[in-house]
Every structure is written in structure tokens, then in C-alpha cells.
Amino acid sequence: MTHRKKETVTAKPETLAPVGRPMMQRRAAGAVLILGGLIFFLTEFIAAAAWKNPPYSYTYHYISNLGVHGPSEGFGQFMYSPLAWVMNTGFFLFGITLFIGTALLKGMQGRRRFAALMPAFLLAVGGVLLAFFPGSGEVPDSGAVDFHSLGALAGIVGGNVFVIMLGRLYRYVGITPKTGRAMVVLGVLGLISLVGFLAVAGSGANLIGLVERCAVYPVLIGPICAGVSIWNHRIPDTLEAHSANHDKAESRVS
Fold this sequence. Notes:
two-stranded antiparallel ribbon; 254 residues; mainly alpha
């Protein structure tokens, strides 16, 4: 009887490396999404803390006031933000960062990827407009475009639609179902709050700042929740490949 030695096959390190890459990329995307929301919150806090006399009110003052150095007056509110450049830097960076984080997400192809990237792009454009055209409250000349208001509308609408779409696409990007549902609710509440904000904007209501934040904060909280979920949620790499193949099959049919 002859005994044959069993051959042991050892995988080379370079063949093992790609296995962890999808998860590393998902985690990188999640970290960037978290960063995007934190940039806004942090710059808002710093700019508001520097507004001393009278103190800045989160419930009364508009967010845009933090980007106006002043002193000036607009929409019935006194505006004097010593660190306006900090807030405008936050406006500029947060939307672009969220767009980059969305672009880094794997698992979405074709129409699904477009559905997530398009509102994220609108959000990024809105943030850039907010940064370069501070909301001074001055009425533009006849025929001129109010780029600040345009940027605010693009950012709030695009941002909330982005949160809703990302929540609906939870299974493709590694977000838990519970977080996905919460994001959809957040986005819907943000859009409803926008309607309320537009109804009372310029009225001098004491809680105008709070209503505005109900429309804006879902745009920040949603991506942070998504990023944390993506970072902590392990999904099989085969699921990502299955999603990609499914989308390719759909595109062939259409």
C-alpha cells in the first residue's frame, strides 16, 4: 500500500487581500458620511459660540445669519457673526464631503446609484452657493438671482431627498433595515418642516430658527446614522457582488 502525502495549499497574501477590500471601502465611505454631518454641526457650534452680544439663539436666529459678519439687519433679525468665515467654510465642505461619501459607496449600480448621487450632488451645489453668497437679507436688484436662497432650497430639498433615497437603498450599501427606515422618516420630516419654514420665513416668529433646523438637521443626522450603520454592519462580500449582477441584469432588460 502506498501512502500519498496530502498537499497543503497555502494561499498567498496577495490573494487574500481583495477579500477585505470591499469592507474597508464601505467603512471608508461610512466614515466620510459621518464626517460630512459633523463638519456642519461643529462649524455651526463654533460660529454660534463666538456670537456674544446678544447671544446667538438656536431657536430664533436663522442658520444663515452665522455666515454674515455684519453688523447688519435682514429678515427682521440683527446679524453679527465674528466667525462668519467658519460657518461659510462649513457650508462649503459639508455638502461636498457627503457627495464624496456617497460616491465611495459600493453595491449600487445604474439607476440606484444615480438616484443616490443626484440629490447628493444637488446638496453639494447648494452648500457651495450658501458659502459664496451669504444670506445678508438684502433684496437683490430687479432681475438678479438670489443665489443664497437658491442654495438653501437646493440644499434642504436635495439633502432630504438624498437621506430618503439612501435609506431606501439600505440593503445595497450595508445599512441596517432599522436605520434605513429611520432615515426615510427623517427625510420626510425634513421636507414637511421645509413647508412650515417657508410659511413662516420672514414673519419674525420666535421659533423660526427651530423650524428651520427641523428642515436642515435631518440632512445631517441621516448621513451620520448611515455612516455609523455602515461602519458597524458586516455584510457578506457576495451580497455586494449579487447586487451588482442584479443591477446589470436589470439594465440589460431595460
